[in-house]
Each structure stands twice: as C-alpha cells, then as structure tokens.
Design goal:
Blueprint: H1 6-42, H2 48-85, H3 88-94, H4 99-141, E1 154-156, E2 159-167, E3 172-181, E4 187-198, E5 207-218, E6 234-245, H5 266-274, H6 282-310, H7 319-346, H8 350-353, H9 355-374, H10 381-405
Antiparallel strand pairs: 1-2, 2-3, 3-4, 4-5, 5-6
C-alpha cells in the first residue's frame, strides 16, 4: 500500500493552511467588489437577490482562477517561513533532507493546482462567463416594471408611468397614470383605478393589465411652429380591461456561445484558430489561448520563486523578503497582461511578448533556488537591507536628539 512519507505530509500541511486562508479571503474580496455592482443593476427587481447570487456563482470560476496562483504563492511563503523561524528547516537539513527534498511534495501540489487551473481556464470559466452574460442580459431587458417605486415617475422605453400603491408580493397596484409619447405619431395617456402585472405566452415583455380606466389618444403631435394648422383631434374612451406591454425588447437576440473568444474552451479555441472561415479575429483568439496557457504554466515556477524568499536568518529582516517576492509576482503579472494586450491589438509574436518574460522569471527563480540549495553563500539582499536599516536608524536617532535639544 502506497503511503506518503511523513516529511511530505508535514510540508503539505504547513502550506495548505495559509493557502486555503489566502484563497478564501482573496475570493471573498473579489466577489464583494462585484457584488456592489450587481446590486446596483438588480436592486428593486423581483427576486433581485436571486439574480445576484446566481450571477456571483457564475463569477466564481473566473475569480478562483485568478486567486489560485496568488494563494499558492502566499501559502508557500508563509508555510516555509514559519518552518524556517521555528528551526524546522535546520532539523530537516541535519537529517539529510535538503531544500530540493522539501520541494518534492510542493511540486506535486503544483501539478494538482495546475490541473485545476487548466480545468477552470480551459472549460469551466468559458461556460460560466456565457451564463453570467445571459443572466445580465435577461435582467437588463426584461422585468422593467420591477424597478418601479410608489409615487415615483419611471421611464420604460417611450412610456412614463407612476403608481400610487404597489404590492410586489401579488404584482398588483392601485391608481396608475401612464403617458406614451410616440413622436410624430402622437401620444397616449392612460389612467386606471387598479391593475396587475401578468405574463402572456409569446410576449417576452411583462404586461400591465389595467382595469376601470380612461384613455386619451392623439393621433398626431401638434406642430408648435405653425399654430395656424388645425389642432389634432383627441379620442377619449373608457375601458373595463386593457393589456399593455411595458418595457422594451433588445434589438438583437442574445447571441449563442462562441461569438466571443473568451467563451470558447481551449479545444474549441484551437479548432476555431485552425478554421480559415472563422468570424473571430485571429489575434484575439491567439492572445486568449496564450493567456490561459501562461497562467497555468506560472504555477510550476512559483515553488522555485517562493522558497528562497521564505528562508532567512532567524534574527534578520524577513519582512522585506515577502515585499520583494510579492513585488516581483505583481510586476510579472502586469508585464504578461501588457504582452497579451499587445498580441490582441497589434498581433505581435506571443513567444516574444508573453513567453519571453515567463522564461526570464523561470530562469531567475531556478537560479535563486539552485543558489539556496547547493551553494554556501550569503543572500546578497540581506547586507543591503541591513545597511538601509542602519541608515534609517541613524537618521531617526539624529532627528530625535535634535528634537530633544529644542527649548
């Protein structure tokens, strides 16, 4: 029976806890920012919270794909830094388990994370993105009535209406005034004692069913510049029941999945790139494909980058290591994003603008890890940081001394 060595299990346990904490916090922060925008779109609509949580669920794959590399990097930094501070790394080294041995379980973890990232970017996110856009399309183009508030004029297409009393539970209202301006074709004004919102088969818009009302209709709008022309006649009538659709229908139907390169899976994207009759722009498809691949490949170099920055002297300045490591990762992300944008807009070679910076970071990370594991040399950053710290301490003490001499 295969059993995981105790060293591997311990290293994984030390990394997993900060990794999961970082992923959870990062995911919640990213979703909270989008939650505010979704509430602004859906507030006041029927089952608005249902729309919000459905849309947020479709956004989870996108934000999870972004949070995975960052969470893994922070997990590696905090996990190995804790073991270094507690002298556990020294114990491993004394037992003959070098840094390269400690990296073995981390690399297996990176393989699992990369597989999850490939599944998210390659299949789950494209489908979830399309579903998210579909939900927003339905919210923005249907159920305009649910934005209404009591005693407030509301605009729905060419119609302006105001309701006196409104019951959302039963979709009924009391005393409505509705004005429909049709431009050169005239206008129509309707008042009713009460009514309800109903759904009619075959009608994509909600329908207002008005009861016991009056209707004033003008077939032509008066020409205010030529007052000598006869005034259009108005037709006044009463009704017991009147059905009128409210809101507007989008000019174009919601397109099927595949009209945007970000909604295609990796397999579909490759097939579409090989199709000479594709309607999608080749540079946009190329940038989307390389963006997904480089995000997955970056996970494999994170262990080599994080481990050297997590180690340090027990009495040394460890904070700067985290800062420099995060700065390198953020800078690399921005460079990659700029390279992808260049491929999309200018159709440049992705192997130069995207994979070139990736190769530089990979070589730097492997060199740092090799130096840590197989060379007995002091980290060149530590003396520089110590010098800066001493200079800051001298300047601070000088200002404190001068301040104390002042009367």
């Amino acid at each position: 029976m295969f059993r995981i060595p105790i060293i591997d299990r311990y290293v994984i346990s030390q990394i997993t806890r900060p990794l999961l904490a970082s992923m959870t916090i990062g995911l919640l922060v990213l979703l909270a920012e989008r939650l505010v925008r979704l509430l602004d779109i859906t507030m006041g609509k029927q089952n608005s919270f249902g729309f919000v949580f459905e849309a947020l669920a479709y956004l989870v794959p996108h934000y999870l794909g972004l949070a995975l590399p960052a969470a893994m990097f922070l997990g590696l930094l905090f996990g190995f830094n804790k073991m270094s501070k507690d002298s556990e790394i020294d114990a491993f080294l004394a037992a003959g388990a070098g840094h390269h041995r400690l990296l073995r379980p981390v690399f297996f973890l990176a393989i699992i994370m990369a597989a999850c990232s490939m599944f998210i970017f390659g299949w789950l996110e494209p489908h979830a993105r399309y579903a998210y856009r579909s939900v927003l399309f339905n919210v923005k183009n249907v159920e305009v009535f649910y934005l209404a508030e009591e005693g407030v004029f509301m605009q729905a297409g060419t119609r302006t209406f105001i309701l006196d009393k409104l019951s959302r539970d039963s979709n009924t209202f009391e005393r409505i005034f509705l004005f429909d301006y049709r431009g050169e074709k005239g206008a129509k004004a309707v008042t009713a004692i009460d009514g309800a919102l109903i759904k009619v088969p075959g009608e994509p818009r909600p329908v207002l069913r008005l009861k016991d009302g009056h209707r004033l209709e003008v077939s032509k709008w008066p020409d205010m510049e030529h007052l000598k022309l006869p005034v259009p006649k108005a037709v006044v009538s009463t009704f017991d029941t009147l059905d009128t659709p409210i809101g507007k229908i989008a000019k174009d139907a919601f397109p099927p999945r595949g009209t945007n390169e970000r909604e295609l899976t990796i397999i579909e994207l490759v097939h579409e790139m090989a199709n000479p009759d594709s309607k999608l722009q080749p540079s946009r498809m190329r940038s989307s494909l390389h963006k997904r691949l480089v995000n997955v490949a970056t996970i494999f170099i994170l262990p080599f980058l994080a481990l050297p920055f997590a180690m340090g002297r027990r009495r040394g300045q460890r904070g700067y290591r985290f800062g420099i490591a995060l700065l390198i990762l953020v800078g690399f992300h921005e460079i990659i994003q700029a390279g992808i944008l260049t491929v999309k807009e200018n159709d440049t070679n992705p192997y130069l603008t995207v994979w070139g910076p990736f190769a530089v970071l990979a070589l730097f990370s492997i060199w740092r890890f090799w130096t840590l594991s197989f060379r007995l040399s002091r980290d060149w950053l530590e003396p520089a940081i110590d010098t800066v710290k001493q200079a800051v301490s001298r300047i601070s003490s000088l200002f404190s001394r001068n301040k104390g001499l002042q009367p």
